[in-house]
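Last lecture ended with a question: if I hand you only a sequence, what can you say about the shape of the protein? Today we answer it with a concrete record. The protein is DUF2817 domain-containing protein. Below, first the input exactly as provided, then the predicted structure, then a couple of comments.
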Amino acid sequence: MTLEPFYPIGTPGQPWGVQEKAQWLARQTRQRSYADQVVSEIDRLRAHFDVSQYGLLSYGQERYPLHALRSRGWDDALPTALVTGGVHGYETSGVHGALQFLHTRALDYAGRVNLLVVPCVSPWGYERIHRWNPDAIDPNRSFRADSPAGESAALWALTEPLRQRCLVHVDLHETTDSDESEFRPALCARDGKPFEPDGIPDGFYLVDDSENPQPAFQQAIIAAVAEVTHIAPADADGMIIGSPVVAPGVIEYPVKRLGLCAGITASRFVTTTEVYPDSPRATPQQCNDAQVAAVCAALDYALAHG
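The predicted structure:
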């Protein structure tokens, strides 16, 4: 039987080699500016936060400085919270939700918690509106000490001194229609596996850590976000993206074993947000607002129960 191609690069059933990855990279084009849309916003926040460059990604002739923002007046006696966005650069509200939180709500937590916020972990992916980095590596499967992804390795090094001291980590993501039309087919083609179409959940949901589940924490976030945008229902099989729904709007992954960003610390309270920006029932501003609501609800719950 001849396998029908489902992606324009590679041979069905065969993982990509150097040539196929080069073909894929040649198809990627810069569609927006990290400097103009992200770094400029970070610069506006320097009056209120300590901004540091924690890495520099070099891809060909392009250089991407990586920035982190910390609470001014960091106090080791306070609990620490980590907020990350843009691990997948194409997930826009992850980046701009983190920046909106810094502009509008972060100072409300001054003197209560140390904040470490990384708004855009993957700037090359942000500019190309892509899930991977230029080496066709998914940073969000690569968070480990020997990471092959520069984005993941840099964040790993940044957070290492705080890894055992973090109370809460909120990792801001989106699930988009392009996951089904582009990114999942590309993943299967890259790995030489068959592509099996699936649905995209219509609404917001969370990913808990199956090895450290915190159901009350997750439901506190769901309740807050439900005031901003709709929560994704389970499908006919009781699933969201192939995982059982364990509570309204919540699924679980073993985040550390999968090398996900949410597993980068030993935080007691961990969640990955998933906003649905392609819904006719949600605007880009609602998506950003949902991310901010999720961060605030997570911080409020963790500070009250930590």
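Comments.
1. The mean pLDDT is 96.
2. The helical segments are 18-26, 34-44, 92-104, 123-128, 150-159, 177-191, 215-225, 284-305.
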